[in-house]
């Protein structure tokens, strides 16, 4: 019986030792993982910074090249002709616009357009009136009226409050004198 007790005790001791060694081993592995993670984070950070620097320098280089190319292209005879042609076309277009606007036929067409627009608006107003639908101007007019009435109502509501505040003061002075 004593021998069984020692065997059982030895078994417990082995299990306890194994458990403690597993716990120590787990802590050691955690420390190693933590140091590896930190090392990787530093490496990633430095790599990210390096990449950002490379990208930035490449972007600046490309922008510099693009400016140089733009200036070189603008100096070419074709670009100069293109620019002068563009300016000439803009000048001709302004001149043509002025001439067309002075033409009596264009003035008549513009007058007709205005008349047609007025007739169209009048027709829409009559259709809306027949269908008893308020137009935009009617709604705006009604909105202004409602706003005015709201302001007057607020003023009327504030007057009794001001009068009721003044009334106790008057009664206090009359009771103080009595």
Largest sheet: none
Overall pLDDT confidence: 85
User: Which value, in Å, is the CA radius of gyration?
Assistant: 46 Å
In terms of quaternary structure, the protein is single chain
Low-confidence stretches: none
Number of strands: 0
Helix and strand composition category? mainly alpha
How much of the sequence lies in strands comes to under 5%
What is the helix fraction of residues, given as a range? over 70%
Order of helical and strand elements? HHHH
Q: How many angstroms separate the termini?
A: 112 Å
Put simply, the count of helices is: 4
Overall geometry: flat
Topology (SSEs and partners):
Elements: H1 2-75, H2 77-102, H3 104-130, H4 136-177
At a glance:
The protein is mainly alpha-helical and 178 residues long.
Question: What features would you describe in this structure?
Answer:
The chain has 178 residues and is mainly alpha-helical. 95% of the residues lie in helices and 0% in strands. The protein is built from 4 helices and no strands. It has helices spanning 2-75, 77-102, 104-130, 136-177. The longest helix has 74 residues, at 2-75. The protein starts with a helix and ends with a helix.
Features:
0% strand; mainly alpha; flat; 4 helices; 178 residues
